[in-house]
Design a protein that fits this description.
- The complex is a heterodimer of chains A (153) and B (155).
- Chain A has 153 residues and is mainly α.
- In chain A, helix 1 packs antiparallel against helix 2 and helix 2 packs antiparallel against helix 3.
- In chain B, helix 2 packs antiparallel against helix 3 and helix 3 runs antiparallel to helix 5.
- Chain B has 155 residues and is mainly α.
- Chain B has five helices and no strands.
- Helices cover 77% and strands 0% of the residues of chain B.
- Chain B has two domains: 45 residues, no CATH class; 102 residues, Helix Hairpins (Orthogonal Bundle).
- The two termini of chain B are 42 Å apart.
- The chains are: A mainly alpha (153), B mainly alpha (155).
- Chains A and B meet through helix 1, helix 2, helix 3, helix 4 and helix 6 of A and helix 1, helix 2, helix 3, helix 4 and helix 5 of B.
Chain lengths: 153, 155
């Protein structure tokens, strides 16, 4: 196993552990924190492969914006901690995991190419327009939500 | 009991932050060694069967944990968190796509898909966050059991 594979497995293990933290913790606030940690680790996987632009995008948008809003929401609407894991659903989830793992084992994936990505070749004029349209869409969405929220009593 | 639980969670969180710092340090060291190797070869980690299998396994695990969190959640905040975890699994499963294409023009296609996914999912989560805030302002609770009926009734 190469150094990159070991590093990738460590980062992925931490992401899965953070996901288990979300599942097992009682308090919503800590669940939101663990979720932000998990998203950071997932973004780190992109950084491991040198896809820095995707790392920045996920870290800024998902961890920086949506994650922090979720943490703030969980802190605002904090309820007494109670166990939210229904143990009835654990056996079907484990069975699904086994079936998925077996199908993955039988799939015989073949990835022999190197990860190649260059942000300079990506930023052509049509893709800059796409990004601008997407940002405008999110701004319009937020303004519509704020307008609806102001109408509430 | 609550403070004990919060204290335990705080310790776990501090431990996780320490591990995150260590991971960042290790990643920086690996990136530095990759830059050193760049003069000899390409310097880019290779996406082989092992890496792709690791990523897909982690993505499936995170997705299943998110499903389990969603179906056993008792309030809307936990539902929102589980939805964000599902999108995290989607982002993980996008990584091997960067190795399936060859050439600079084709290599930017997965990144375009990643950008679309990030913006669309963040828009969806924004709507859900606003819906939770509105729900709480009307029902004075974020309990999932209070969600009994749907449909657009106008504001």
């Amino acid at each position: 196993m190469s150094v990159e594979a070991v590093l990738l497995s460590v980062v992925l293990c931490f992401a899965v552990l953070a996901a288990f933290g979300v599942l097992l913790t009682k308090d919503n606030f800590y669940a939101a924190i663990y979720m932000a940690l998990m998203m950071t680790f997932i973004a780190s996987c992109y950084a491991v492969f040198g896809i820095d632009a995707a790392f920045v995008l996920i870290a800024f948008v998902f961890v920086g914006a949506i994650g922090i809003v979720t943490v703030a929401l969980a802190a605002t609407y904090r309820r007494p901690p109670e166990r939210q894991l229904s143990y009835v659903w654990v056996p079907p989830a484990a069975l699904t995991a086994v079936v998925l793992g077996y199908s993955l084992w039988e799939a015989h994936l073949h990835f022999s190419n190197q990860v190649s990505f260059d942000i300079q070749n990506f930023l052509m004029i049509d893709r800059i327009l796409l990004i601008l349209f997407l940002i405008s869409l999110v701004v319009l969405l937020v303004s519509a939500i704020l307008r609806m929220y102001r109408r509430l009593p | 009991m609550r403070s004990l639980c919060a204290s335990r969670n705080g310790k776990v969180l501090s431990f996780a932050l320490m591990i995150l710092s260590a991971a960042v340090i290790v990643a920086n060291a690996a990136a530095a060694s990759g830059e050193e190797k760049a003069g000899e070869g390409t310097g880019v980690p290779v996406m082989n069967d092992v890496s792709a299998s690791l990523i897909y396994t982690a993505a499936f695990t995170v997705l299943l944990i998110a499903y389990l969190t969603a179906i056993s959640s008792r309030d809307l905040i936990r539902l929102l968190i589980s939805l964000e975890m599902m999108f995290g699994a989607v982002f993980l499963s996008l990584i091997p796509m960067f190795s399936l294409s060859s050439g600079h023009a084709a290599a930017s296609v997965p990144f375009a898909i990643a950008i679309l996914t990030v913006f669309v999912s963040s828009g969806e989560l924004l709507i859900l966050i606003a819906a939770i805030v509105m729900f709480d302002s009307r029902k004075k609770s974020t309990d999932a059991d209070l969600v009994r009926e749907g449909g657009d009734r106008g504001v």
